[in-house]
Write a structure and sequence with these properties.
heterodimer, A: 234 residues, ATP12-like fold, B: 107 residues, mainly alpha, 62% helix, FMC1_homologue (chain B), Protein FMC1 homolog (chain B), chaperone (chain A), membrane (chain A), transit peptide (chain A)
Amino acid sequence: SDSPGGFEINLDHRKLKTPQAKLFTVPSEALAIAVATEWDSQKDTIKFYTMHLTTLCNTALDNPTQRNKTQLIRAAVKFLETDTVCYRVEEPPALAELQKNEWDPLVTWAEKRYNVTIGSSTSILGPNIPASTKETFVSHLASYNMWALQGIEFVITQLKSLILSMSLIDRHITVEKAVLLSRLEEEYQIQRWGNVEWAHDYDLCELRARTAAGTLFVHLCSESSTVKHKLLQD
Amino acid sequence: MAALGAPLRTLRALLRELRHAAGRSYRDSPAYRHVLAAFRAHRVTSEKLCRAQQELHFQAATYLCLLRSVRQHEALHREYHGRGERSPQEVAGLVGFRLPQQPGGKG
């Protein structure tokens, strides 16, 4: 239902609240509908571990880690120092080759798109990221509102990569592709040694679900035409 | 822009996932109506897909991935991780015993 501050969710005539008992209000109608759909999908028991959009909204509303915008951005950009797609192996050669073929294009894309130097490294210390590169990403992320930033930081922690996350947010690759690239070594091992459904597919589906939720969350909170700006105070 | 395939295919798959999620009255669900309305509003009228249409398609593909992955994850969870331990009654039953009845409860 629509209200001046945003959209609310009603569960059997009672207003949904966050874990910290705040009124559950979201800035975008599409997001509210998607959250309502998560609740409608629950059958006998409420399986909160499947309700990723609801969880993201709760995090945005309650901010349990008490981080402000600057801190969130700093946490996000810090990931670049250990970015999955920049952190390369030398052994075995087949995996090193696979990383080069699959990850180099992403690094190149990010460097071109943001006009920065990133590179990659086989050193245990990871790549040496110039300060100017970090500053560029800091100011780019500052253009997002607090809700979208929570989503971006979430996607980065899931994929373990700022580059893959930005690539996804910028719609350069799909969620499935981003997850595949994030799990490149796992996929390589699975191809060599075989798939174990109850572990591999389980992890794969969970990562896809979380990444998809985070990405959708960012996009729905960033649309200027449908978003209620009053709620997204920075 | 990501390689997404045909928008119609994404739409059909997304609507199918919403059917799974919503149950019998899926056609009346807010999500179903919202998705259909959005696709109709952005119908391709010219040869080139405009930016808004591409953004909508990407969003739809992302939402489809979310619904599909959640369903698959839940199915795997039920299959492999849901069963839990057997109760004492079940364990006794495995070897043909029954647990003694203790009307006053345990001593």
